[in-house]
Specification:
Distance between the termini: 45 Å
Oligomer: single chain
CATH architecture: 2-Layer Sandwich
Structural class: alpha+beta
Largest sheet: 7 strands, antiparallel
CATH topology: Alpha-D-Glucose-1,6-Bisphosphate, Chain A, domain 4
Length: about 160
């Protein structure tokens, strides 16, 4: 069996530099995806990304960055590490195609397949959220609203209720 690769893509109607920075600079990334970060992405660095509403975080090892072209990271390590790659291509002077791939899932065949499917859905939310934020100036809260029952507050109230 060929290793599953999660893949999604979308045109974002903004110049490539702005779209690239949306994934490198937490001041922008926190507007549509993560809650907070310990810093900007830079090759050879490790930063921590947090999703406070879910009570989860991950260390992000930045493997490679090619300004306005490509970002390659490894995250969820060491026990469940996988690689994520963003590619950015100018389609017009004010539009950028973003392609996200995630691979290297670990576990039995069922877990690997489930993780690849979940990753495809998750990164699709991320791109849709970025598109809405950049093109319509709204935060759709797609990542936060995907699973409200899993929010830290909701889980705590279910245990005490």
């Amino acid at each position: 069996m060929q290793e599953p690769v999660a893949k999604t893509q979308m045109v974002i109607r903004r110049p490539v530099g702005e779209v690239f920075d949306a994934f490198v600079d937490p001041a922008i990334t926190t507007r549509f995806w993560i809650s907070r970060s310990t810093g900007k992405l830079a090759a050879g660095q490790t930063v921590r990304w947090d999703w406070d509403f879910y009570g989860v975080s991950t260390n992000v090892e930045v493997k490679e960055i090619e300004r306005n072209r490509r970002i390659l990271i490894e995250w969820n390590g060491p026990d469940n590490a996988s690689s994520v790659e963003w590619k950015f291509e100018t389609t017009t002077k004010d539009s950028t195609m973003v392609v996200i791939r995630n691979w290297g899932f670990r576990g039995d065949a069922d877990k690997v397949l489930a993780d690849a499917i979940d990753s495809t859905a998750g990164f699709s939310f991320v791109l849709a959220g970025l598109k809405a934020y950049f093109e319509r100036h709204i935060d759709l809260n797609l990542v936060r609203d995907h699973d409200p029952a899993a929010h830290v507050e909701a889980a705590a109230s279910q245990r005490t209720g």
